[in-house]
Amino acid sequence: xxxxxxxxxxxxxxxxDYLSAFLTSCGFTVDCAATGADALKRVATGSTPSIIxxxxxxxxxxxLDVLKxxxxxxxxxxxxxxxxxxxxxxxxxxxxxGASDYLT
Length: 104
Prior knowledge:
Elements: E1 5-9, H1 13-25, E2 29-33, H2 36-44, E3 51-55, H3 63-73, E4 79-82, H4 88-96, E5 101-103
Parallel strand pairs: 1-2, 1-3, 3-4, 4-5
Helix pairs in contact: 2-3
């Protein structure tokens, strides 16, 4: 991906579609993934975004597991955690694991 690319990882299609449309209208190239495994596969195959928006609640592998895997392999990619829940423990854990920010 190019310098202004964003990978949106969320299992909710309406959120993926909304963020994709909005971010595209702002001039970004946007790719989307519905699962953590799909996101890891895309990044591993050379589709390296300039930033990742990552949902915390995903089917199968949760967002914290995905965050950990991404940070181990691609520590320089900023990752912003997205979630409908704002549990302090989860926020602290995500930030300690290397998330750039956490948005509820």
